[in-house]
Amino acid sequence: MDELYSIGELARRTGLTVKAIRFYSDRGLVPPTNRTAAGYRLYDVTAVARLDLIRTLRELDLDLATIRKVLDHEETLSDVAAAHAEALAVQIRTLRLRRAVLTTVADRNSTPEDLTAMHRLTQLTTAQRHTLVTDFLDAVFDDNEGFDAARTSLTPELPDHPEPEQVEAWIELAELTQDEDFRAVVRRMADDFRTVALRPGIVATIRDELRPALAAGITPDSPEAGPFVATITTRYAEAAGQPDSPALRRRLTAVLETANDPRWARYLHLLAITNGWEPQPPLTPTYDWTIQALLQAG
Description:
The chain has helices at 7-14, 18-26, 45-59, 64-71, 77-108, 112-122, 126-141, 148-153, 164-177, 180-194, 200-216, 225-240, 246-259, 262-275, 284-297; strands spanning 34-35, 41-42.
């Protein structure tokens, strides 16, 4: 016959208190195997295993009803574990969102109204976030064709389980997309793109041509800047299909001043963080140098 244990002995074997074992026993989770002549409960080795499992599941915050289903084989342990893992993932995401909001509020010295607005942004569903971004891209690209690739590359996608810094970036980015003045800037950039004024190839040319000048410390107002400016304006004239002229250079200056808006550089930086991309160095130094050099050249 298997050895039987009193509640006190069971408590010593499992590390649980007598009170806890009696509680689980009274609720039928660990039924006694037998009783003594005096009516005291006795348990076999199966009770030890059940109590170990109960303690583990309780430490994982499972409720007694679910634990009963596992013990009675009404639900498999794997199904219960999967369901609770998913629930924990939701809780973790919620906590990350709350932490991000509070961190942002603390960093910005925000008002109660700012806190409310940021909290609402973090509570948006995936579909609602998509709608917010789509509204911004529709507004700046005027829903014209030919910008599919640009729209894709400029779309922030907050992951299902974001890191706190991704949430913070998303909050700031979402606020930025609602700025009407910023929308106007990006709309002008889209128009420049459409008219071949600032295609990626032009940007790459300016960046590549100026890399030696910036590395050598050549200032935009020095005589040494002239050849670099000439190369850039020549390439720009070729792309625009127009001869190099003061008017064309003024147009290039205006285009670069629009593209050099610090909010655009900030948008690209926040976009990279939100999407989990490696942030790229901003083009601000390159744009600053070219704009100053063009203004000096007249």
